Amino acid sequence: MKRTVTGTVEGTGATITIQLGFTPKAVQLFNIDGLCTLFWSENMTDAYGLKAITAGTISKITSLGITPYTGSENTNNAGFQIGADTDVNVSGETIEYIAYRD
What's the 3-state SS for 25-64? Predict the structure, then answer.
């Protein structure tokens, strides 16, 4: 199985679930339209992340970030959720992601 998975999704302004078939140990998000990044690792609390915005400001967010998703009935649905952070998950803006298995 792949050690990393990449992809893109359109921002919605609401929680987005990305299904990978595994729960990642780390995730990087890049809002390529809004020029914002967000990083989360398994050592962080759910919905947390380190966010960098265009101005270069780096901040720790403690809500609306990235949360691991274990799936509903089987692990094929496992992945992560992108929270509704207003810099990262903007309706109509493209989010690229890299999810690390290990």
Answer: CEEEEEECCCCEEEEEECCCCCCCEEEECCCCCEEEECCC
